[in-house]
Amino acid sequence: MADFFALPLNKLAPGASYHQPLQASSAHAEPGDPAVRVMTDLKTVMAITIGPDKSVDAARERMVRHSVRLLLVIDDQESILGLVTATDILGEKPLQFMQKSGGRREDVLVSNIMTPQERLEVLFMKDVAVAKVGHIVATLKTCGRQHALVVDNDAPEQAPRVRGIFSASQISRLLGTEIQTAEIAQTFAEIQAQLVK
Known about the structure:
Layout: E1 40-41, E2 49-50, H1 56-66, E3 70-74, E4 80-85, H2 86-90, H3 93-101, H4 110-113, E5 115-116, E6 122-124, H5 125-128, H6 133-143, E7 147-152, E8 161-167, H7 168-175, H8 188-196
Parallel strand pairs: 2-3, 6-7
Antiparallel strand pairs: 1-8, 3-4, 4-5, 7-8
């Protein structure tokens, strides 16, 4: 510790304020507000993640503890393998997996019900930067999803990085109105599976 010295202390000036995140921390937003105002910006808020080998109950507990409804599923190198939502965990996916595999709920892993990386569709930050909240609401409604990932794509020579997350429930709270974005089947296989039931 001999190499370190104390920094100078100063008086806090009268009228001092404090920094606040760029994302909406207020209790209200309007459809015409900049979209970034309602985006969870991962440059200022830590992403909540989980490994693919964790149980769905561990994922649910993690969501509750951090008050989120989406977890990024990552590997040991912090590469995104997919995502898992509260709808995945609390919906029919665990039951369908148990019926197919013959296991119990505690045997169901995140990897068994997550949406894999190759099926994820994302928004580009350059588009979000000029969009309004209403554009994001329209996007979520059109694709029938509760969440949308935003990717920084300004350095094509580098691997893309998830910059932010939009959540329909968070936007609903800020707008003061319910956003109906019923999860819909996104692929022919999912539509076929729904018809077989």
